[in-house]
Amino acid sequence: MSEHAGPAATTAQATEKATTFDVVVVGAGPAGSAAALELARRGHHVALVERGAFPGAKNVYGGVIYGRILDELIPNWWEEAPIERWVTRRQTMLMTPTQSLTVDFRTENWGKPPYNGATAHRAKFDAWLASKAEEAGAELITSTVVTGLLTENGRIVGVRTDRPDGDLRARIVIACDGVNSFLAKQAGMYPDGQVHHTTLGVKETLALPRETIEERFGVSGTDGVDIELVGGTRGIAGGGFLYTNLDSVSVGVVLSLTELGKAKVRPEELIADLKRHPAIAPLVKGGELIEYAAHLIPEGGYNTMPKLTGDGILVTGDAAAMCLAAGIWLEGVNFAIGSGMYAGRAAAEALSKNTTDLSGYERMLHESFVLADHRKLKGAPELLLGDRVQNKYPAMICDLVENLFQVTNPAPKPGLRKLFRRGAKQHGIRLRDLAKDAITGFRAYG
Ligand SMILES: Cc1cc2nc3c(=O)[nH]c(=O)nc-3n(C[C@H](O)[C@H](O)[C@H](O)COP(=O)(O)OP(=O)(O)OC[C@H]3O[C@@H](n4cnc5c(N)ncnc54)[C@H](O)[C@@H]3O)c2cc1C
């Protein structure tokens, strides 16, 4: 490694003494480890650089991993991945401060191989995936911040780090440095204005005895529950979640950054609201706070993605805004693993052909679920974060159901149509807007 020349806010020139790799992967989150694993398996000399003391040390998420893409990377991964519980029960809860309506689904199918979703702690999961890359021959460099790109004649030829002798030269750099990617921005791949497409995720982990979780959530063994919450964020666009781990639960909110700023409310107050809610309080009662964490989420989807390939650089995962936040799903880990894997493959292909053409990456992304899902659901974030879906519909639906279940005799029972019209009027919903949203929703999800 060469002499460190200070923080590189601007592009630095490559030095002669830098350590040389075929590829430098920046960030050992799921995207980075998948990329490094693919490259190392193909016999390439790859560095996986992570600012945390170990992979996963600095990473935050809600808690559910969808592992199907792992089948391609690590056959029978479920036999060894550090999973807490397999999600066999999924709920979507619409809520107002005093009401809740839950759609509750459970299936035994998701509790056996090849499984569907799983809760896992990122510190363990990321460390495990990175260990796979290391076993395959990748060089993991931890406690090291990449501070800038090295360029030569306009081409990226490596990275600079905060360590003395910290320059790492490479023919290809893969930016897996997560949301707000400093590297993608420095490479000029992002337009401005991403803050409007960024949410803040905040979560608490509450310790509860394993038997208490099983009793309260109606599961046993390693079966678990994933509850998505709509409407419990005091009108701030976003949502909430409650997931079961083995002997803890994760409860959190996801909030529009711009609206949070305007509302002048602290995220922990919103989590406190959730924990007091009549539908949530009995589930989390007595839980001892063992972790509080916050992290940004790139929620804008397909329309807000940066350039994915540049001269000597590929951008993956959250660094490329590949987190899918489409209401029914909040998935980022699987898209990160997928895009990292394709980036690794494309880089390996370019190295073996001795070409600087990295366009194979975008081709693979377009042919796979990564961009297919994002393309298909590109209208979802805007629809979901709008006022009607966030506030008016949950309140209207909860009132409708309350009135439907309420027995009104000696007054005669109101018909469903009457209740619906009354609810729409009461919550200021025009039928025209409802129809428009239904069509937009059908187009986005259909
Ligand atoms: C509150 C919350 C809830 C979420 N819930 C879910 C969920 O339930 N399921 C799901 O699938 N997704 C969820 N997500 C999204 C998911 O966390 C991300 O999409 C996913 O982690 C992206 O993976 P990544 O590898 O691209 O980036 P990250 O996981 O962010 O990894 C980036 C890595 O790069 C490192 N790094 C960054 N900069 C540098 C640097 N300069 N030098 C060296 N290292 C660097 C970081 O330390 C980190 O290890 C959630 C996110 C949040 C915040």
Walk me through what this model shows.
With 446 residues, the protein is α/β, with parallel strands linked by helices. Helices cover 34% and strands 26% of the residues. The strands form three sheets. Strands 1, 2, 3, 8, 9, 10, 11, 17 and 18 form a nine-stranded mixed sheet that branches. The longest helix is centred in the C-terminal third of the chain and has 21 residues. The radius of gyration is 23 Å and the shape is globular. It starts with 11 loop residues before the first strand and ends with a helix. The N terminus is likely disordered. Flavin-adenine dinucleotide binds next to helix 1, strand 4, strand 12, strand 16 and strand 20.
Shape verdict: globular
Distance between the termini: 52 Å
Largest sheet: 9 strands, mixed
Spans of at least 5 consecutive residues whose pLDDT stays below 50 are: 1-16
Task: Tell me the number of strands.
Answer: 20
Structural class: alpha/beta
- Nearest-angstrom radius of gyration? 23 Å
Query: What is the helix tally?
Result: 15
Distinct small molecules: flavin-adenine dinucleotide
Ordered list of secondary-structure elements with their pairings:
Elements: E1 12-13, E2 19-26, H1 30-41, E3 46-49, E4 64-66, H2 70-73, E5 85-95, E6 100-106, E7 117-119, H3 122-135, E8 139-141, E9 146-152, E10 155-161, E11 168-175, H4 182-186, E12 198-207, H5 210-217, E13 223-230, E14 238-244, E15 248-256, H6 257-263, H7 267-276, H8 281-284, E16 288-298, E17 309-310, E18 313-315, E19 324-325, E20 330-331, H9 333-353, H10 360-367, H11 369-376, H12 380-384, H13 387-405, H14 416-426, H15 431-445
Parallel strand pairs: 1-9, 2-3, 2-11, 3-8, 5-13, 11-18
Antiparallel strand pairs: 4-7, 5-6, 5-7, 9-10, 10-11, 12-15, 12-16, 13-14, 14-15, 17-18, 19-20
Helix pairs in contact: 1-3, 1-9, 9-10, 13-14
Flavin-adenine dinucleotide (FAD) is lined by residues 26-32, 49-52, 58-65, 145-146, 176-178, 182, 201, 203, 252, 295, 297, 317-319, 323, 330-334, 336.
